[in-house]
Write a structure and sequence with these properties.
single chain; alpha/beta; 6 helices
């Protein structure tokens, strides 16, 4: 496997390019809530758009792997977009699901390569600071979008769609903004740019 250089030193946020991947899309709706009326693809896009606005306001260049609910970006294409963009960081957004309704809860941060571990821990720490959902920790996972993306990357499962308590919290603009603020703070900490 090729060795990829991970840039861990920058002077300002406007030097950064971050790829945001709203999971699923188009005919791939992802997970459903218990009433089967709320789709994962809708929440991931709304979350990514909030994060994009927050990061761009801080000067970060943001690339989205999709911008419309009707779009679906193949997993291999997600990685290709990231690798070809000369990006610094990659974040994929998802909402979880369990076989039995209301039996699992909380948010998880996943990474694959060792060079992504510090980024995963930094973002997760910020998410945990203001998140009222259960903390399921940072875990290694062999997801294609992480395996095929060679910059520091994470996949966030931001709560369980088929847990009514999680859904009531995470299906709000406030929750999405909390996630966005946590990601910005995490990026600042990762690059030692915190004020």
């Amino acid at each position: 496997m090729a060795i990829y250089k991970v840039q861990t030193t920058i002077n300002s946020l406007d030097e950064l390019t971050v790829v945001l991947d709203p999971g699923h899309g188009g005919d791939d709706v992802g997970s459903l809530d218990n009433t089967e009326t709320i789709y994962e693809k809708t929440l991931t896009l709304a979350t990514a758009k909030t994060v994009k606005k927050t990061l761009e306001a801080a000067g970060i260049n943001v690339i989205m792997t999709r911008t419309k609910d009707s779009e679906y970006t193949r997993l291999a294409k997600v990685a290709e977009i990231t690798n070809n963009a000369n990006a610094n960081l990659f974040i994929s957004f998802h909402y979880d699901n369990y076989d039995y309704a209301n039996q699992a809860e909380g948010y998880t941060t996943y990474y694959y390569y060792d060079h992504s571990e510090a980024f995963a821990n930094t973002i997760h720490t910020q998410l945990a600071a203001n998140n009222s959902l259960s903390d399921r920790g940072v875990q290694v996972a062999n997801y294609m979008v992480l395996r095929n993306t060679f910059v520091p990357g994470i996949l966030l499962e931001l709560g369980y769609l088929n847990n009514d308590n999680d859904l009531a919290i995470m299906n709000t603009a406030n929750y999405r903004q909390m996630v966005a603020d946590a990601i910005l703070a995490g990026i600042e900490n990762y690059y030692n740019l915190s004020k």
